[in-house]
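USER:
Make up one protein:

ASSISTANT:
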Amino acid sequence: MAKENTQGVSARARPKEKFNFFHDQRVRSALYQLLTAGIVGWVAWYLISNTAYNLEVRGMNTGFGFWNVSAGFDTDFKLIDYTPGVGTFGRIFWIGALNTLFVSFLAIIASTLLGFFIGVLRLSSNWLVAKVALVYVEIFRNVPLLIQIVFWFIGVFSLLPRVKSTIDLSFGAERVLLNNRGLYMATPIPGNLFWMTLVALAVAIGGVIYYRRRARKLQDKSGIQTKTMLPSIAAIIVLPLAVFLATGMPLAWDVPTLQGFNFEGGTSVPPAFLALLVALTIYHAAQIAEAVRAGILSVSRGQSDAAMSIGLKPGRVMSLVIIPQAMPAIVPPMISNWMNTVKNSSLAIAIGYSDIVSLFMQTALNQAGYAVEMVGLTMLFYMTISLTISFFLNIYNKRVQLVER
């Protein structure tokens, strides 16, 4: 009874909470959200209506009617078919987008591999190697990318020998030729049975993946290390090569030949493409190298000492112990570097490479006159690519974070 009285007194002693509209946290949260949404909506309405009014006053075209209108200009580099006067501005958009993605993809792959290599060299015990890597990073990281692009275009590729003095990079086979007009390569033409070689290559790659996974499971269970590098390389080379020879080598080549003042046939890329690719690779490799160095240094020295104590060689220590633990620290800055590679490719407008900015947002815009729509589509393209890269690399980042735990 006394306990019940005590509870009743304590319950009556509590002050009754009063609802205050202006001080309630839930009300304030909803009010702030509505206020923010209202401001954003008003700003968007003001910009859209003001832009539409100004375009109407100036008599400028609006809408997307230009998409199927034929474009009357050509481009020196394209990955899909296009005929001037027949192809549309929509086709020009896709040509520019593919050109941008092509050079960005190659630059991302090359800069990542080179960046990892330079980043590891920065921590080399060899004084000369470490200092050379340091000089590389400090020079190319601190020189603006636009200057590097112009340097490679004007100071290197434009000064290459002329057509008559072409450099044969294939050691006399005339399959890869370089001059001041670009890089010319022989184009493979597959025959009827060439698909069997591709199937053999796919089978070899699948077998290598299965073999390496079995070797890893065996190592986890028993600690026995199995050398997989040489057998994997042999399988990927020998099996497709054997099928290729057995089917009568069903592959021909369209070799570039000198016709008049230039080479005809094969595949060619202009000097602007080469200059942009080299500049993007070297610049972003220096950025990635520092991220790799920082990630490796974030791993405790005890990890490498422990790995060395059980007999692992330095190369295996780096690949099996240090790098996997460093990846959680390397991936976030690498995401930014990959996105910046795509966005920085727009600087190609300075040297005339036919990317989406030069081709669609400049030349096509000057002819069609739909400025807002074309600029908006270009912005949407870069935003979509950046968000896609961020999405997939964030998934990978979560996986390496889980592996670490």
Summary: The chain has a mean pLDDT of 84.
